[in-house]
Amino acid sequence: MAEFESMIPVPGVKNHVFEACHHVVKALRASDNNLDANLRKLLSDLESHLSTFGIVDTKVEDTGFSEIQERFKEALKRILSWETNQSMILEAGLSEADQFFQALYEVHTVLMGFKSLPIKTSRKEKDVYNQATVALDIAMLRLEKELCDVLYQYKQHAQPEYLAVSSRGKDIVYDESFVSLDDEVVIEASSHKDDEHIAGFQNADLVDPSVLPHIKAIANAMFACEYGRAFCEAFIRVRREALDEYMFTLEMERFSCVDVLKMEWDVLNVAMRKWTRVVKIITQIYLASEKQLCEQILGDFESKSFACFIEISKDTILSLLSFGEAVALRSCQPEMLERFLSMYEGSAEILLDVDNLFPDETGSFLRMGFHELSKKLADRTTATFLKFKDAIASAESSRPFPGGGIHHLTRYVMNYLKLLPEYTDTLNSLLQNINVEDSIPEKTGQDIRPSTFSPTAKHLRSIVSVLESNLERKAQLYADESLKFIFMMNNFHYMVQKVKGSELKHLFGDEWMRKHIARYQHNVTDYERSTWSSTLALLRDNNSVSTLRERCRLFCLAFDDVYKSQTRWSVPDPELRDDLHISTSVKVVQSYRGFLGRNAARIGEKHIRYKCEDIENMLLDLFECLPSPRSLRSSRRR
């Protein structure tokens, strides 16, 4: 294998052309066919001239053309023996490989010798030349097959930990009415933590390092014999197939622009998530390793290494770019916001890697393609964020939300906002030049986090302000004043809990929290006043016995009305519901107990419909969203 490595011009190494000429001169001098005195004199002078280059060992006896023929026959025999042999030369051992390359060297030397001397030769020399030409073609075909076999059999992939692409079972769902986005769905849908930066990665060996010397020997031989183009075509073909196979392993299909534009959201969502992960693996791991492989094998052949790398990678790169550009053409639906954020963040993250992969003019179309895509994704992400806010503002209802519970819009918005703090830096860069009204005046001080008044924080608080305005409009749809307060209490409490229990708290700040806690607590007070003030007024002292009995009866009827309606109302948060039960019980039960304690004897037991324990137990049924409160009340009394 070392023979052909010496054919590449390197300072201090003999030029093989001179040696080839020397062999041919010796062969011609040894022959007496058609050589006149002048030609013999010319060959003698040429041999002396060649010896001045230190190539010819004048001590070696001129053995003549017969010895050249014998060596050529042996070389030809060795090359032809591999024409039908399907096994790899590599597997035959180092000695056999060296003998094959030495035989190829002998044949190539003869051919180079003939080509360097433009003289008419005899039929015998022509036969040798023709045989050498055929043998060289056979050897090159055999080496091309050897190259492909070795690349196929000894290929390797990137490390397994780089292959995992998250495919969650649930994803964010959106329609014009903002379908509920529950907590467990948000946990499963958030893939940003799964798309962490590929930190500290190293280039992978895509081909077993032990066979690289053999592949490089094949490259040296084929380039020296002017078959470099055939080598590159075979190398590109095999390595391109390996990249396609790797993409298949990553489950990243190739989609046309039309396919992407027609995709249903659930399919597109998964594809966008995969793209974000795959584009990092391909650029930061696989292509960096592929470029290294090309340099290891073809680094001695000027620009051939980079040209092969471009051809291997461009189809895959263009397919990834095409997908990203097609996604950027879709309408800015709110459910796409996090996906756009992930794709933009991923594309921005790899720009430096792409610049390093394709630094020259030859790869500028790929390099510029990524830079242009990143700009498009930035614009689309910003537009989607702003449209998300507009969609919240325009989400109207014609009927009140059943039971006064937590509206789908509130769940959707707050759970979606919980996904965004992980993209704070990205959003800050995208939103820094877009002004927005903020419900919290900006402050400074040691206890104020800088993040509280970042562009992202201001925009998220603005989104929640739009949500609050929408909820206030929805509250006006309730005919029952008390239910309006329950609805607002539920939704404001939910917002506070979502901020308090997530990274949103660092963006919304303490003042926002205090303001909104006070807001839902005020709703509790308003509810109690609007529900119980008139009912408890019936329990005030009066000296008339008939009035006491009537007031006791009217209280029980009023309580029944509250029970019948408010057991169907909903307070989903158990802690908030317990607080309401306790607060209501303190006011109602204590007032009723005091009324009976003062007046039970004058009212008469038969006129007292409910005991204090009955009232206390029935109050526990409120806000449970029960289907048949009457039967439940009866069961409690038993």
Salient structural properties:
638 residues, Monooxygenase, rod-shaped, disordered C terminus, protein transport, Exo70, Cullin_repeat-like_dom_sf, Exo70_C, Exocyst subunit Exo70 family protein
Polypeptide structure, described:
This is Exocyst subunit Exo70 family protein. 67% of the residues lie in helices and 0% in strands. The chain is an all-alpha fold and 638 residues long. It has four domains: 2-153, no CATH class; 160-393, Exocyst complex component Exo70 (Monooxygenase, Up-down Bundle), CATH 1.20.1280; 402-528, no CATH class; 538-637, no CATH class. Helix 14 runs antiparallel to helix 15. The longest helix is centred in the middle third of the chain and has 34 residues, at 265-298. 37% of the residues are buried.
Helix content: 55-70%
At CATH level 3, the topology of the largest domain is Monooxygenase
Radius of gyration: 43 Å
Total beta strand runs: 0
Shape: rod-shaped
